Automatic annotation (TrEMBL):
<feature type="signal peptide">
    <location>
        <begin position="1"/>
        <end position="22"/>
    </location>
</feature>
<protein>
    <recommendedName>
        <fullName>LTXXQ motif family protein</fullName>
    </recommendedName>
</protein>
<keyword id="KW-0732">Signal</keyword>
<feature type="region of interest" description="Disordered">
    <location>
        <begin position="35"/>
        <end position="57"/>
    </location>
</feature>
């Protein structure tokens, strides 16, 4: 008789622990809805919402220009004044390109405007270069364009 009472008490305890545990969502039945909130469930079932999920983080223009200048400076043997002037031209060009890309215009129009901007940028950069540097700069641009075309054709 004593063992039956002990088993009955143990079964009752197990059942009450399971019920209490289920109320707090530990069994996975509560998804934060329908009155079983108790605070904890709502926070754990939500994804963090921040600006990083909306769009990828933009790389600052100065960083991009720095990478371009790292390549151009040794290739063209630029002096300090040329480096500063060309950096300023590139910063202005990249910012303008960003504005063009965000504009609400047709894709074909954007392409034409970006090509015109690229030509203007090249012309401004060439104004700061001597004849030898202009030849090297033109070769770098052609090499860059062939790489881009080969990537598109893949």
């Amino acid at each position: 008789m004593k063992t039956i009472q002990i088993l009955f008490v143990l079964a009752l305890m197990l059942l009450s622990i399971d019920t209490a545990s289920a109320q707090y969502g530990n069994n996975g039945y509560s998804n934060g809805g329908g009155g079983g909130g108790y605070g904890r469930n709502n926070r754990m079932n939500q994804m963090p919402q921040g600006p990083s999920q909306d769009k990828p983080k933009e790389i600052p223009v100065e960083v991009t220009v720095g990478k371009i200048m790292e390549k151009l400076k040794p290739e063209l043997n630029l002096d300090v004044l040329q480096e500063i002037a060309i950096s300023n031209v590139l910063i202005e060009s990249i910012r303008s390109q960003g504005i063009l890309l965000k504009a609400e215009t047709a894709q074909e129009q954007k392409i034409k405007e970006i090509q015109a901007l690229s030509e203007t940028t090249d012309r401004k950069i060439n104004d700061f270069l001597n004849e030898d540097q202009k030849v090297k700069y033109k070769a770098l641009n052609e090499e860059s364009n062939t790489k881009k075309k080969s990537r598109r054709n893949r």
